[in-house]
From TrEMBL:
Name of the protein in its database record: DeoR/GlpR family DNA-binding transcription regulator
Superkingdom: Bacteria
Matches recorded under PANTHER family: AGA OPERON TRANSCRIPTIONAL REPRESSOR-RELATED, HTH-TYPE TRANSCRIPTIONAL REGULATOR SRLR-RELATED
SMART domains given in the database record: DeoRC (SM01134), HTH_DEOR (SM00420)
Family annotation (Gene3D superfamilies): 3.40.50.1360, Winged helix-like DNA-binding domain superfamily/Winged helix DNA-binding domain
């Protein structure tokens, strides 16, 4: 059996049945425990699971938009205000899914901008603002998460270019890797990065390290991180080594 297929089956087993022992996975897949251990190491490096004593568990799934929208609103608003100040009138802005991007959209009213998004709440927020040229990306609707995903979304992004991308995240690892809890969102986020000149990560203090089962990008793909509190020393060092500007509550570190 190919490694890629084993990885798929391991993740499926963990998500459907909860944490599993190496011996159980070995029996299910018909391979040696040593092979399973190597697979688990690789999958953990990719942010897809967490190894525990004798086995592994899948990363936690994403929360619906409505639940997350009510959490840490003041912190998200502070980050959004600082991010909005980076943008000049006449520029194009790509807004990712998520609640912090939505709080940023609220800061853009009255500006002369082009806003591109796959975030349905951002679209609803800006739809009546005639000063903003609004581009809604196509794709499959994820109703609970208020987003558009899939190959149509990615194809749309290949036809577009933005001055700024404001990227959301589920977590930032100490090595500076940007993570997401939902695998289906990752290709869209990567396409957004490719479509943008400047990539700004919006991450409140809870995102260090936060959660995430899939790697979106490394620190080398970021230009700026806007947060409401200093990152831990290891993460901050990784970001600074990659040349990332860290903006904290209106001041700049590094």
């Amino acid at each position: 059996m190919l490694a890629e297929r084993r990885h798929q089956l391991i993740l499926r087993a963990l998500r459907s049945g909860g944490p599993a022992a190496v011996t159980d996975l070995s029996e299910q897949l018909g391979v040696s425990p040593a092979t399973i251990r190597r697979d688990l190491v690789k999958l953990e490096e990719d942010g897809l699971l967490t190894r525990v004593h004798g086995g592994a568990r899948a990363e936690e799934g994403d929360q619906p938009f409505a639940e997350v929208a009510e959490v840490r609103v003041a912190e998200k608003d502070a980050i959004a205000a600082r991010a909005a100040a980076m943008v000049q009138d006449g520029q194009s802005v790509l807004l990712d899914i998520g609640t912090t991007a939505y709080r940023l959209a609220r800061q853009l009213h009255g500006r002369r901008l082009t806003v591109i998004t796959s975030n349905l709440v951002v679209y609803e927020e800006l739809a009546d603002d005639e000063g903003i040229e609004l581009v809604l990306l196509g794709g499959m609707v994820r109703r609970e998460y208020r987003s558009l995903v899939g190959f149509l979304t990615e194809d749309n992004l290949r036809q577009l270019h933005a001055d700024w991308l404001f990227l959301g995240t589920s977590g930032v690892r100490p090595g500076g890797q940007v993570m997401d809890t939902t695998v289906v969102e990752v290709p869209v986020k990567r396409a957004m990065i490719k479509a943008s000149d400047k990539v700004v990560l919006l991450a409140d203090a809870a995102k260090f390290p936060g959660t995430g089962m899939a790697k979106v990008c490394g620190p080398e793909d970021l230009d700026v991180v806007v947060t409401n509190a200093p990152a831990d020393p290891a993460t901050r060092s990784s970001l600074e080594e990659a040349g990332v500007e860290v903006v904290v509550a209106g001041k700049v570190q590094g």
